[in-house]
Amino acid sequence: MGIRARRRQSGPENVSPNLTPLLDIVLQLITFFMMLVHFGSKVDESALKVKLPVAPAALPGADPGLDRLTVSIDPTGRLVSASEEVPDTLQAAWWSKQAAIRREGAELIDLPAASLSTRVLVRGDRRLPYGRLRRTLAESQQAGFERFSLIVSRVEEATP
Fold this sequence. Notes:
Layout: H1 20-36, E1 68-73, E2 79-81, E3 84-86, H2 91-108, E4 119-124, H3 130-143, E5 147-150
Parallel strand pairs: 1-4, 4-5
Antiparallel strand pairs: 1-2, 2-3
Helix pairs in contact: 2-3
């Protein structure tokens, strides 16, 4: 008897489904929903109407951080933070005051006071000359702020 009969395995069969179509659909859905998400340009409830510059490729900040300071600069160069309006001539002193407040807070929670971890979010009006915006950033850097995010709009805002 040289003929051997093949035996079928009576146990569970090895089944490995093809996951490629499923992963393809999931990635397409993720891309679809990411494109529909609206990242608003309204960061703070300022009464000042600032027309942001338009940058179609603008992306939202990845990590706004825990400590942040949001300022708006109108077309005349006046700085607005929360409900406080600071004229052009007093801005250097205002930045120094803000840095001192944040250094005191850092000392209370045992952080090195020399470095400010505050992220400054700057909303500059599109009609503001770049030199004026740069002077504001230089004044804040002299006070000790190192991290900045310039806020722009992804689409043209409707004018009221």
